[in-house]
Design goal:
The protein is 10% helix and 43% strand. Pfam families: CheW (PF01584).
């Protein structure tokens, strides 16, 4: 369970938390499944002039204009490739609907508290503020992203202006 301070693994009642697993490049990430509204195939977005590069643009989702972030660009993971596996994960975070482009989604995984480790200290070269921790399942490792913190950071405030 993710606690009020945003950290996983503090859950002592033995109940697991569910994460949607997705890939960016060769790494596998996970976000809290409760933040996911739907998953859609990638479709062209309408680019907004002067928007930061990681904000791909906006799409019309059943009459609602929502901003879309390309997570590969956001995390500086090389040039994104859009193919038949590329998807947009539609998120609902604090009443705001937004999309994030990822290379692919794989499954929903339940992690028990003892399967989630604190993120390693990386010094100033890497901002780990957006990480909940590392989830391990056998030989598989998920980088667990605190999507609330990431999508509510100051630079993401620009997305609200774009959708308006």
């Amino acid at each position: 369970m993710i606690t009020a301070n945003g950290k996983a693994g503090d859950n002592k009642d033995g109940v697991g938390s569910e994460f949607l697993a997705f890939t960016l490049g060769s790494e596998e990430y996970g976000i809290d499944i409760l933040k996911v509204q739907e998953i859609r195939g990638y479709e062209a977005v309408t680019r907004i002039a002067n928007a930061p590069e990681f904000i791909k643009g906006v799409i019309n989702l059943r009459g609602i204009i929502i901003p879309v972030v390309d997570m590969r660009i956001k995390f500086k993971l090389g040039t994104p490739v859009y193919d038949q596996f590329t998807v947009v994960i539609i998120l609902n975070i604090g009443g705001r609907v937004m999309g994030m482009v990822v290379d692919s989604v794989s499954d929903v995984t339940t992690l028990m508290p003892d399967q989630v480790k604190a993120p390693p200290e990386m010094g100033s070269t890497f901002n780990s503020d957006y990480l909940i921790g590392l989830g391990t399942i056998d030989e598989r490792m998920l980088i667990l992203v605190d999507i609330d913190k990431l999508m509510s950071s100051s630079e993401m405030g620009l997305m609200d202006k774009m959708a308006a």
